[in-house]
Amino acid sequence: MYSSLLKNFGSFYFIGIGGVSMSALAKYLADCGKTVAGSDVCDSAYVRDLKNMNIKVCLDSRRESVADFEAVVYTDAIRENDVQLCEARALGKCVVSRGQLLYEISRNFKKVIAVSGCHGKTTCTAMLAHIFRAAGKNFTAHVGGRDPGFGNYLNCGSDCFITEACEYKKNFLLLKPDCAVVLNSSPDHLECYGSEENLKQSYIQFKSSAEIKVGLYGDLEKDGLSFGFDKNADYHAGNIAETDGFYTFTAYEKGKPLGKIAMRVYGKHNILNALAAIAVSRSFGISFEEICEGIASFAGVERRFETLCVKNGVSYVADYAHHPEEIRAAVRTAKKIARGKLFVVFQPHTYSRTKMLIKQFVKVLSPLNNLMVYRTFAAREYYDDAGSALTLSQKLRRSRYGDAVQDISDFISGASDGDFVLFLGAGDIYDIAKSVCRNDCTAR
User: Fold this and answer.
1) How far apart are the first and last CA of the chain?
2) What strands, in cross-sheet order, belong to the sheet with 11-15?
3) What CATH number should be reported for the domain holding residue 35?
4) Looking at residue 188, what is its pLDDT?
5) Predicted local distance difference test score (pLDDT) of residue 167
6) pTM assigned to the model
7) For the chain, what is the domain count?
8) 272: part of which helix (H) or strand (E)?
9) Residues 237-273: pLDDT tens digits?
Protein backbone atom coordinates (compact mmCIF):
# COMPACT_ATOMS: atom_id res chain seq x y z
CA MET A 1 0.00 0.00 0.00
CA TYR A 2 1.56 3.29 -1.09
CA SER A 3 2.05 5.83 1.68
CA SER A 4 -0.35 8.77 1.53
CA LEU A 5 2.31 10.92 3.19
CA LEU A 6 4.76 10.30 0.39
CA LYS A 7 2.03 10.63 -2.22
CA ASN A 8 0.73 13.97 -0.95
CA PHE A 9 3.98 15.80 -0.11
CA GLY A 10 6.87 16.63 -2.38
CA SER A 11 9.29 18.40 -0.04
CA PHE A 12 10.65 17.33 3.35
CA TYR A 13 12.80 19.10 5.91
CA PHE A 14 14.66 16.98 8.51
CA ILE A 15 15.51 18.45 11.92
CA GLY A 16 18.47 16.34 13.00
CA ILE A 17 19.18 15.08 9.49
CA GLY A 18 22.67 13.88 10.41
CA GLY A 19 21.39 11.05 12.59
CA VAL A 20 22.11 7.57 11.29
CA SER A 21 18.44 6.70 10.75
CA MET A 22 17.33 10.19 9.67
CA SER A 23 20.03 10.45 7.02
CA ALA A 24 19.09 7.05 5.58
CA LEU A 25 15.42 8.07 5.39
CA ALA A 26 16.41 11.36 3.76
CA LYS A 27 18.42 9.45 1.14
CA TYR A 28 15.40 7.28 0.36
CA LEU A 29 13.10 10.28 -0.12
CA ALA A 30 15.69 11.89 -2.38
CA ASP A 31 15.81 8.68 -4.43
CA CYS A 32 12.02 8.94 -4.71
CA GLY A 33 12.40 12.36 -6.33
CA LYS A 34 11.42 14.40 -3.28
CA THR A 35 13.00 17.73 -2.41
CA VAL A 36 14.99 17.11 0.78
CA ALA A 37 16.97 19.36 3.12
CA GLY A 38 17.70 19.52 6.81
CA SER A 39 19.70 20.77 9.75
CA ASP A 40 22.01 19.30 12.36
CA VAL A 41 24.27 20.54 15.12
CA CYS A 42 27.55 19.20 13.71
CA ASP A 43 29.27 17.80 10.66
CA SER A 44 29.58 14.02 10.29
CA ALA A 45 30.13 11.28 7.75
CA TYR A 46 26.36 11.03 7.33
CA VAL A 47 26.08 14.77 6.67
CA ARG A 48 28.86 14.51 4.09
CA ASP A 49 27.02 11.60 2.43
CA LEU A 50 23.93 13.81 2.10
CA LYS A 51 25.89 16.72 0.69
CA ASN A 52 27.41 14.37 -1.89
CA MET A 53 23.83 13.64 -2.98
CA ASN A 54 23.24 17.43 -3.31
CA ILE A 55 21.00 17.44 -0.24
CA LYS A 56 21.34 20.77 1.54
CA VAL A 57 22.32 20.54 5.21
CA CYS A 58 22.46 23.57 7.50
CA LEU A 59 24.68 23.27 10.60
CA ASP A 60 23.04 26.25 12.33
CA SER A 61 19.30 25.65 12.52
CA ARG A 62 18.67 29.12 13.98
CA ARG A 63 19.54 30.61 10.60
CA GLU A 64 17.18 28.58 8.45
CA SER A 65 13.40 28.62 8.09
CA VAL A 66 11.28 25.56 7.29
CA ALA A 67 8.61 27.69 5.62
CA ASP A 68 9.37 26.49 2.07
CA PHE A 69 8.85 22.80 2.89
CA GLU A 70 5.56 20.90 3.01
CA ALA A 71 6.51 18.35 5.68
CA VAL A 72 8.93 18.49 8.61
CA VAL A 73 10.53 15.41 10.19
CA TYR A 74 12.12 15.42 13.65
CA THR A 75 13.97 12.90 15.82
CA ASP A 76 13.28 12.01 19.44
CA ALA A 77 16.48 13.85 20.35
CA ILE A 78 14.90 17.18 19.32
CA ARG A 79 13.46 19.16 22.23
CA GLU A 80 9.90 20.50 22.12
CA ASN A 81 11.14 24.10 22.22
CA ASP A 82 13.40 23.67 19.19
CA VAL A 83 13.18 26.80 17.00
CA GLN A 84 12.49 24.98 13.74
CA LEU A 85 10.03 22.52 15.29
CA CYS A 86 8.08 25.37 16.86
CA GLU A 87 8.07 27.26 13.55
CA ALA A 88 6.79 24.20 11.68
CA ARG A 89 3.91 23.76 14.08
CA ALA A 90 3.07 27.46 14.08
CA LEU A 91 2.92 27.41 10.27
CA GLY A 92 0.63 24.38 10.31
CA LYS A 93 3.11 22.16 8.51
CA CYS A 94 2.74 18.39 8.41
CA VAL A 95 5.05 17.41 11.30
CA VAL A 96 6.05 13.75 11.68
CA SER A 97 8.48 11.94 13.94
CA ARG A 98 11.31 9.79 12.60
CA GLY A 99 9.44 6.65 13.69
CA GLN A 100 6.27 7.71 11.89
CA LEU A 101 8.19 8.45 8.70
CA LEU A 102 9.90 5.06 8.88
CA TYR A 103 6.47 3.41 9.01
CA GLU A 104 5.21 5.49 6.07
CA ILE A 105 8.24 4.56 3.99
CA SER A 106 7.84 0.88 4.86
CA ARG A 107 4.36 0.97 3.32
CA ASN A 108 5.95 1.52 -0.10
CA PHE A 109 7.25 -2.06 -0.11
CA LYS A 110 5.56 -5.41 -0.71
CA LYS A 111 7.27 -7.05 2.28
CA VAL A 112 8.83 -5.58 5.43
CA ILE A 113 11.50 -7.28 7.56
CA ALA A 114 12.00 -5.48 10.88
CA VAL A 115 14.84 -6.39 13.24
CA SER A 116 14.41 -5.53 16.92
CA GLY A 117 16.23 -6.25 20.15
CA CYS A 118 18.32 -4.52 22.78
CA HIS A 119 21.56 -5.41 21.00
CA GLY A 120 22.62 -6.79 17.63
CA LYS A 121 20.09 -4.93 15.45
CA THR A 122 22.60 -3.13 13.28
CA THR A 123 24.80 -6.16 12.72
CA CYS A 124 21.89 -8.46 11.87
CA THR A 125 20.24 -5.88 9.58
CA ALA A 126 23.48 -5.23 7.68
CA MET A 127 24.14 -8.97 7.48
CA LEU A 128 20.69 -9.48 5.95
CA ALA A 129 21.43 -6.76 3.39
CA HIS A 130 24.59 -8.60 2.35
CA ILE A 131 22.72 -11.90 2.07
CA PHE A 132 19.80 -10.45 0.09
CA ARG A 133 22.25 -8.71 -2.27
CA ALA A 134 24.20 -11.94 -2.77
CA ALA A 135 20.89 -13.65 -3.60
CA GLY A 136 20.01 -10.98 -6.17
CA LYS A 137 16.87 -9.94 -4.28
CA ASN A 138 14.93 -6.76 -4.99
CA PHE A 139 15.14 -4.83 -1.68
CA THR A 140 16.11 -1.68 0.21
CA ALA A 141 17.93 -1.68 3.56
CA HIS A 142 17.79 0.96 6.30
CA VAL A 143 20.68 0.28 8.70
CA GLY A 144 21.46 1.91 12.05
CA GLY A 145 25.19 1.98 11.42
CA ARG A 146 27.79 2.41 8.72
CA ASP A 147 28.65 -0.60 6.59
CA PRO A 148 32.07 -0.21 4.89
CA GLY A 149 30.53 -1.04 1.52
CA PHE A 150 27.23 0.84 1.38
CA GLY A 151 26.94 2.98 4.50
CA ASN A 152 23.57 3.11 6.26
CA TYR A 153 21.34 2.75 3.20
CA LEU A 154 21.23 0.35 0.28
CA ASN A 155 18.65 0.67 -2.50
CA CYS A 156 18.38 -2.47 -4.63
CA GLY A 157 14.65 -2.25 -5.37
CA SER A 158 11.21 -1.94 -3.85
CA ASP A 159 9.98 -5.49 -3.22
CA CYS A 160 11.34 -5.87 0.31
CA PHE A 161 12.28 -3.37 3.03
CA ILE A 162 14.86 -4.49 5.61
CA THR A 163 14.97 -2.17 8.58
CA GLU A 164 16.02 -1.85 12.18
CA ALA A 165 13.14 -1.43 14.59
CA CYS A 166 14.12 0.74 17.56
CA GLU A 167 12.34 0.09 20.87
CA TYR A 168 12.98 3.61 22.24
CA LYS A 169 9.64 5.27 23.07
CA LYS A 170 7.93 2.20 21.57
CA ASN A 171 8.81 3.37 18.05
CA PHE A 172 9.01 -0.21 16.80
CA LEU A 173 5.32 -0.70 17.51
CA LEU A 174 4.53 1.79 14.73
CA LEU A 175 5.82 -0.72 12.19
CA LYS A 176 3.64 -3.49 10.78
CA PRO A 177 6.24 -5.96 9.52
CA ASP A 178 5.61 -9.12 7.54
CA CYS A 179 8.68 -10.60 9.24
CA ALA A 180 9.41 -9.56 12.83
CA VAL A 181 12.76 -10.43 14.43
CA VAL A 182 13.43 -10.16 18.17
CA LEU A 183 17.14 -10.79 18.76
CA ASN A 184 16.80 -10.47 22.55
CA SER A 185 14.69 -8.65 25.12
CA SER A 186 17.30 -7.47 27.63
CA PRO A 187 16.08 -4.60 29.85
CA ASP A 188 16.76 -1.15 28.39
CA HIS A 189 14.91 2.16 28.02
CA LEU A 190 13.07 1.34 31.23
CA GLU A 191 12.41 5.05 31.68
CA CYS A 192 9.97 4.61 28.77
CA TYR A 193 8.48 1.24 29.77
CA GLY A 194 8.43 1.41 33.54
CA SER A 195 9.35 -2.25 34.02
CA GLU A 196 11.12 -5.13 32.31
CA GLU A 197 7.81 -6.96 32.01
CA ASN A 198 6.24 -4.07 30.09
CA LEU A 199 9.21 -4.10 27.74
CA LYS A 200 8.84 -7.85 27.14
CA GLN A 201 5.13 -7.44 26.44
CA SER A 202 5.96 -4.78 23.85
CA TYR A 203 8.33 -7.18 22.09
CA ILE A 204 5.59 -9.81 22.10
CA GLN A 205 3.16 -7.27 20.67
CA PHE A 206 5.70 -6.34 17.99
CA LYS A 207 5.95 -9.97 16.86
CA SER A 208 2.28 -10.80 17.17
CA SER A 209 0.92 -9.42 13.90
CA ALA A 210 3.79 -10.60 11.67
CA GLU A 211 3.37 -13.57 9.35
CA ILE A 212 6.98 -14.67 9.95
CA LYS A 213 8.20 -14.48 13.55
CA VAL A 214 11.84 -15.04 14.50
CA GLY A 215 13.07 -14.96 18.09
CA LEU A 216 15.86 -16.07 20.41
CA TYR A 217 15.18 -19.54 21.82
CA GLY A 218 14.00 -19.38 25.43
CA ASP A 219 13.83 -15.58 25.56
CA LEU A 220 10.14 -14.82 25.05
CA GLU A 221 7.19 -17.15 24.67
CA LYS A 222 7.67 -19.60 21.81
CA ASP A 223 6.06 -18.15 18.74
CA GLY A 224 7.32 -18.84 15.23
CA LEU A 225 10.91 -19.70 14.36
CA SER A 226 13.61 -19.78 17.02
CA PHE A 227 17.38 -19.49 16.88
CA GLY A 228 20.07 -20.02 19.49
CA PHE A 229 22.85 -22.20 20.82
CA ASP A 230 20.36 -24.72 22.21
CA LYS A 231 19.87 -27.79 19.99
CA ASN A 232 16.11 -27.47 20.41
CA ALA A 233 16.10 -24.17 18.52
CA ASP A 234 14.85 -24.27 14.93
CA TYR A 235 18.18 -22.80 13.85
CA HIS A 236 21.17 -23.59 16.03
CA ALA A 237 24.96 -23.66 15.81
CA GLY A 238 27.11 -26.73 16.28
CA ASN A 239 30.81 -27.56 15.92
CA ILE A 240 31.68 -24.04 17.10
CA ALA A 241 35.38 -23.19 16.76
CA GLU A 242 37.27 -19.97 17.54
CA THR A 243 40.55 -18.58 16.22
CA ASP A 244 41.77 -15.18 17.45
CA GLY A 245 38.22 -14.03 18.18
CA PHE A 246 36.71 -15.18 14.87
CA TYR A 247 34.25 -18.09 14.81
CA THR A 248 33.20 -20.86 12.48
CA PHE A 249 30.19 -23.11 13.06
CA THR A 250 27.83 -25.55 11.44
CA ALA A 251 24.36 -24.11 10.92
CA TYR A 252 21.49 -26.49 11.65
CA GLU A 253 17.94 -26.11 10.37
CA LYS A 254 15.41 -28.06 12.44
CA GLY A 255 18.04 -30.60 13.41
CA LYS A 256 19.56 -31.04 9.96
CA PRO A 257 22.97 -29.56 9.06
CA LEU A 258 22.92 -26.86 6.38
CA GLY A 259 26.68 -26.42 6.24
CA LYS A 260 29.61 -24.48 7.61
CA ILE A 261 29.62 -20.72 8.23
CA ALA A 262 32.84 -18.72 8.60
CA MET A 263 32.39 -15.34 10.31
CA ARG A 264 34.44 -12.26 9.46
CA VAL A 265 33.31 -10.37 12.56
CA TYR A 266 34.64 -10.80 16.09
CA GLY A 267 32.75 -12.38 18.96
CA LYS A 268 30.70 -15.45 19.77
CA HIS A 269 27.58 -13.30 20.22
CA ASN A 270 27.62 -12.64 16.46
CA ILE A 271 26.83 -16.30 15.86
CA LEU A 272 23.35 -15.51 17.22
CA ASN A 273 23.01 -12.57 14.82
CA ALA A 274 24.03 -14.85 11.96
CA LEU A 275 21.53 -17.53 12.98
CA ALA A 276 18.73 -14.96 13.07
CA ALA A 277 19.73 -13.75 9.60
CA ILE A 278 19.82 -17.34 8.34
CA ALA A 279 16.31 -18.00 9.73
CA VAL A 280 14.94 -14.91 7.97
CA SER A 281 16.77 -15.63 4.72
CA ARG A 282 15.57 -19.22 4.55
CA SER A 283 12.01 -17.98 5.10
CA PHE A 284 12.42 -15.83 2.00
CA GLY A 285 13.62 -18.72 -0.15
CA ILE A 286 17.34 -17.93 -0.14
CA SER A 287 19.68 -20.88 -0.61
CA PHE A 288 22.35 -21.75 1.93
CA GLU A 289 25.03 -21.14 -0.71
CA GLU A 290 23.77 -17.58 -1.19
CA ILE A 291 23.61 -17.11 2.59
CA CYS A 292 27.25 -18.22 2.88
CA GLU A 293 28.25 -15.80 0.13
CA GLY A 294 26.43 -12.93 1.84
CA ILE A 295 27.90 -13.62 5.28
CA ALA A 296 31.37 -14.01 3.76
CA SER A 297 31.04 -10.50 2.27
CA PHE A 298 30.05 -8.99 5.63
CA ALA A 299 33.03 -7.60 7.56
CA GLY A 300 31.09 -5.74 10.24
CA VAL A 301 29.87 -2.16 10.63
CA GLU A 302 31.48 0.94 12.00
CA ARG A 303 31.79 1.06 15.82
CA ARG A 304 31.07 -2.65 16.21
CA PHE A 305 34.40 -3.90 17.53
CA GLU A 306 36.12 -1.75 14.93
CA THR A 307 39.91 -1.66 14.92
CA LEU A 308 40.92 2.00 14.81
CA CYS A 309 44.65 1.37 14.57
CA VAL A 310 47.48 -0.85 15.75
CA LYS A 311 50.67 0.95 16.73
CA ASN A 312 53.79 -0.39 18.45
CA GLY A 313 51.93 -3.61 19.20
CA VAL A 314 48.99 -1.85 20.90
CA SER A 315 45.53 -2.46 19.42
CA TYR A 316 42.96 0.36 19.63
CA VAL A 317 39.36 -0.84 19.16
CA ALA A 318 36.00 0.95 19.42
CA ASP A 319 32.67 -0.70 20.14
CA TYR A 320 29.15 0.76 20.42
CA ALA A 321 28.47 -1.23 23.61
CA HIS A 322 26.49 0.90 26.07
CA HIS A 323 24.36 -1.76 27.78
CA PRO A 324 25.81 -4.18 30.39
CA GLU A 325 25.20 -7.24 28.19
CA GLU A 326 26.93 -5.58 25.24
CA ILE A 327 29.86 -4.56 27.43
CA ARG A 328 30.19 -8.14 28.69
CA ALA A 329 30.32 -9.45 25.12
CA ALA A 330 32.85 -6.84 23.97
CA VAL A 331 35.14 -7.41 26.97
CA ARG A 332 34.94 -11.19 26.55
CA THR A 333 36.01 -10.86 22.92
CA ALA A 334 38.82 -8.42 23.75
CA LYS A 335 40.22 -10.77 26.39
CA LYS A 336 40.41 -13.57 23.83
CA ILE A 337 42.44 -11.38 21.48
CA ALA A 338 44.66 -9.37 23.82
CA ARG A 339 48.16 -10.73 24.39
CA GLY A 340 48.83 -8.29 27.21
CA LYS A 341 46.81 -6.01 29.48
CA LEU A 342 43.32 -4.81 28.63
CA PHE A 343 42.57 -1.09 29.03
CA VAL A 344 38.88 -0.13 28.89
CA VAL A 345 37.46 3.39 28.47
CA PHE A 346 33.69 3.35 28.96
CA GLN A 347 31.38 6.31 28.35
CA PRO A 348 27.89 5.85 29.84
CA HIS A 349 25.08 6.80 27.47
CA THR A 350 22.26 8.77 29.16
CA TYR A 351 21.77 9.28 32.89
CA SER A 352 18.53 7.29 32.98
CA ARG A 353 20.07 4.09 31.61
CA THR A 354 23.01 4.30 34.03
CA LYS A 355 20.71 4.97 36.96
CA MET A 356 18.26 2.16 36.22
CA LEU A 357 20.91 -0.44 35.36
CA ILE A 358 23.64 0.69 37.74
CA LYS A 359 23.86 -2.67 39.55
CA GLN A 360 24.34 -4.46 36.24
CA PHE A 361 27.00 -1.93 35.17
CA VAL A 362 28.87 -2.38 38.44
CA LYS A 363 28.73 -6.16 38.10
CA VAL A 364 30.11 -6.26 34.57
CA LEU A 365 32.75 -3.54 35.05
CA SER A 366 34.03 -4.47 38.52
CA PRO A 367 36.38 -7.28 37.35
CA LEU A 368 38.34 -4.90 35.08
CA ASN A 369 41.75 -3.91 36.40
CA ASN A 370 42.39 -1.01 33.99
CA LEU A 371 39.15 0.94 33.63
CA MET A 372 38.31 4.57 33.02
CA VAL A 373 34.70 5.77 33.24
CA TYR A 374 34.45 8.85 31.04
CA ARG A 375 31.90 11.65 31.42
CA THR A 376 28.32 10.74 30.50
CA PHE A 377 27.01 11.37 27.02
CA ALA A 378 23.69 12.96 27.99
CA ALA A 379 22.03 12.78 24.54
CA ARG A 380 18.51 14.10 25.10
CA GLU A 381 18.64 14.20 28.92
CA TYR A 382 19.41 16.66 31.71
CA TYR A 383 22.00 16.03 34.43
CA ASP A 384 21.13 13.47 37.11
CA ASP A 385 23.82 12.83 39.71
CA ALA A 386 22.39 9.39 40.56
CA GLY A 387 23.04 8.25 36.99
CA SER A 388 26.25 10.14 36.29
CA ALA A 389 29.55 8.64 35.16
CA LEU A 390 31.20 9.96 38.31
CA THR A 391 28.70 8.18 40.54
CA LEU A 392 29.23 4.94 38.60
CA SER A 393 33.00 5.33 38.84
CA GLN A 394 32.81 5.83 42.60
CA LYS A 395 31.02 2.49 42.92
CA LEU A 396 33.88 0.75 41.09
CA ARG A 397 36.89 0.46 43.38
CA ARG A 398 39.48 -0.01 40.62
CA SER A 399 38.24 2.59 38.12
CA ARG A 400 39.42 6.06 37.25
CA TYR A 401 37.11 8.90 36.26
CA GLY A 402 37.80 11.24 33.37
CA ASP A 403 36.03 14.31 32.06
CA ALA A 404 38.63 15.60 29.58
CA VAL A 405 40.28 14.07 26.53
CA GLN A 406 43.67 14.48 28.15
CA ASP A 407 42.51 12.19 30.96
CA ILE A 408 42.01 9.40 28.42
CA SER A 409 45.41 10.03 26.84
CA ASP A 410 47.07 9.89 30.24
CA PHE A 411 45.19 6.71 31.13
CA ILE A 412 46.22 4.75 28.05
CA SER A 413 49.77 6.10 27.95
CA GLY A 414 50.90 3.06 29.92
CA ALA A 415 49.82 0.62 27.21
CA SER A 416 52.69 -1.32 25.62
CA ASP A 417 53.33 -4.10 23.09
CA GLY A 418 50.58 -6.72 23.23
CA ASP A 419 48.14 -4.55 25.16
CA PHE A 420 44.59 -3.84 24.01
CA VAL A 421 42.72 -0.52 24.39
CA LEU A 422 38.93 -0.83 24.13
CA PHE A 423 36.70 2.25 23.83
CA LEU A 424 33.06 1.54 24.72
CA GLY A 425 29.96 3.70 24.32
CA ALA A 426 27.33 5.06 21.95
CA GLY A 427 28.12 8.75 22.38
CA ASP A 428 30.96 10.96 21.20
CA ILE A 429 33.55 8.56 22.63
CA TYR A 430 34.04 7.20 19.09
CA ASP A 431 35.25 10.52 17.70
CA ILE A 432 37.27 11.13 20.86
CA ALA A 433 38.86 7.68 20.50
CA LYS A 434 39.85 8.36 16.89
CA SER A 435 41.35 11.69 17.90
CA VAL A 436 43.23 10.18 20.84
CA CYS A 437 44.49 7.35 18.63
CA ARG A 438 45.80 9.76 16.02
CA ASN A 439 47.63 11.83 18.60
CA ASP A 440 48.83 8.86 20.65
CA CYS A 441 49.98 6.88 17.63
CA THR A 442 51.80 9.92 16.25
CA ALA A 443 53.54 10.56 19.56
CA ARG A 444 54.77 6.97 19.99
Assistant:
1) 59
2) 56-58, 35-39, 11-15, 71-74, 94-97
3) 3.40.50.720
4) 64
5) 84
6) 0.89
7) 3
8) helix 269-283
9) 999 999 888 999 999 999 999 999 999 999 899 999 9
